[in-house]
């Protein structure tokens, strides 16, 4: 099933971990999530983080988990691998420190290659049919 941007169900894209998304959609959406996190971190002081952080961070974490899981599904792999990528991101954000931070950066490099460079499976795989939010 193919759907275009006008027909897209944004709640399914951002709040459902099942299904598949292609490389382009993944890169655009995850870049937006990271940009929102960076803006949030820069815009608020510690009082703002204390008041809103318990809402904003889990929400962005959940959205990221859904997007990363769908991208892993597109390559034919389990979405549970997103936990490894998200843990590494949490350790490395905003500045990696020490050997653990270096290990997290290496995991993020692996994740970037796996999610952003490797092609998805053509057609149907165990996670469903290939769909594109932009049609085609």
Compose a concise summary of this entry.
With 136 residues, the chain is mainly α. It contains five helices and two strands.
Biggest β-sheet description:
2 strands, antiparallel
Q: Estimate the strand proportion.
A: under 5%
Number of helices: 5
Radius of gyration: 16 Å
Overall pLDDT: 87
Question: Helix content range of the residues, please?
Answer: 55-70%
Write up what this structure looks like.
There is one protein chain. This protein is mainly alpha-helical. The chain has one domain (20-120). Helices cover 64% and strands 3% of the residues. The chain is built from 5 helices and 2 strands. Strands 1-2 form a two-stranded antiparallel sheet. A hairpin with a 2-residue loop joins strand 1 (124-125) and strand 2. Helix 3 packs antiparallel against helix 4 (82-92) and helix 4 (82-92) packs across helix 5. It is globular, with a radius of gyration of 16 Å.
Mind sketching the topology for me?
Elements: H1 10-15, H2 23-43, H3 46-74, H4 82-92, H5 98-117, E1 124-125, E2 128-129
Antiparallel strand pairs: 1-2
Helix pairs in contact: 2-3, 3-4, 4-5
Features:
136 residues, mainly alpha, two-stranded antiparallel ribbon, 2 strands, globular
